Structure to design on (106 residues):
């Protein structure tokens, strides 16, 4: 799916790619703007102002800017289940056993 701004996220084997599309009909004519390495990304959670994004895989939380510049990476021993952004820019996520948080600056 391509959001109205023309930005879209696609996942390849061990990489998440940010693409810019000019037309909704020509999804394959998009150009890659940025990419970040993360193994098997399961969820993508955008902050309310779209300035940051959290990429969740089975055991990793990766917080990036809107241009996929890595800001913070957290590795968990237990499975990461879900997460949400607060209005203050704090990412709250849950594992199988705990509720935890991650800050943008690490």
């Amino acid at each position: 799916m391509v959001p109205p701004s023309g930005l879209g996220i696609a996942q390849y084997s061990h990489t998440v790619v940010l693409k810019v599309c000019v037309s909704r009909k020509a999804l394959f004519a998009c150009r890659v703007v940025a990419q970040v390495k993360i193994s098997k990304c399961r969820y993508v959670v955008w902050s309310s102002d779209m300035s940051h994004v959290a990429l969740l895989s089975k055991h990793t939380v990766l917080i990036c800017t809107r241009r996929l510049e890595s800001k913070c990476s957290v590795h968990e021993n237990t499975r990461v289940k879900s997460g949400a952004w607060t209005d203050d820019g704090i990412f709250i996520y849950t594992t199988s056993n705990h509720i935890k948080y991650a800050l943008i600056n690490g």
The chain has one domain: 7-102. The beta strands are 7-12, 15-20, 31-37, 43-46, 52-56, 60-65, 70-75, 80-85, 91-95, 99-102.
